[in-house]
Amino acid sequence: MSEANLPLGAHAPGILEASPFAIPSKKLVMWLFIISDAVTFAAILFAYGYIKNASPNWPEPFKFSPSILNVMLMTFILVSSSLTMLIATRAAKAADKAGALRWTFITVAGGILFALLHIREWFALIGEGVRLFQNPWGSPLFGATFFAITGLHLTHVIGGVIALTVVAFGYKRGRYKADDIEIWSLYWHFVDLVWMFVVPMVYLLNVAR
Amino acid sequence: MTAPAQPADSLKTDIVVYLCILALSGVQVLLAYQHAEGAQLLVRMLAVALIQAGLAVMFFMHLHAEQRNLKLALIPGTIFVVLMMNMIWSDSFRLLHMSPFAK
Q: How many of the other CB atoms lie within 10 Å of CB of A72?
């Protein structure tokens, strides 16, 4: 059988290797990135737990209002943005371009709102005297670990907002396909997933009593 | 190469999973205000977070609809690495009871 007679999408043996997991290469790369990033966050959270456990006077500064209420609102926004991203992916797969764009930009708006709330919280803590290596309450490493973990997560959120915006505009112009929306939705869900560990470890285990 | 046809989860499934994740977040807040001992509270919090993460990976990220060999390539290795990181915990206890905080 000549290569010219092969059906679209197939390939002659030895020319192109089939994907080992029956998914597009871009999607596999995103999964591998997510795994490596998950291990990065796990490492930083383990380091945080280690330092907290080894410090006898770890601060517990987060009052129900405003800190925990703010965290609950941020969680609601981020998890809701995952749902809107799912709807965007579903619309893109159904070739509903307008719907995919609308829901992707709603997701982006959720990400921006989350980032703004996070930055507001940072400024509030800085206003209370929290710095990288000092704070008014206890172990001086509290600030370093808090800003490192939440800062890394916030960087991911901002990166996701930028990536989703670029992909959405590219999808609108026809440069990117529905698969690209789906692949970047994986990243967005991962950002959501990491937050599910950051909230209990960093905030809820340090509530003021 | 295009992705294989995935079982079509309905929007209803997505919304149910979304509500479950939100409810579990509420449970975490309730747990935080129970006067449990530190290690016990940590275990409970992480158990809830793991359930949330499992729901997100399987349903939001649709890993449940992918081939089994992709799941086998991703999940066990990640769990192994995270468990190996767990080995440092005993050292953090040593640090607390010895230098530099020992009295």
A: 18
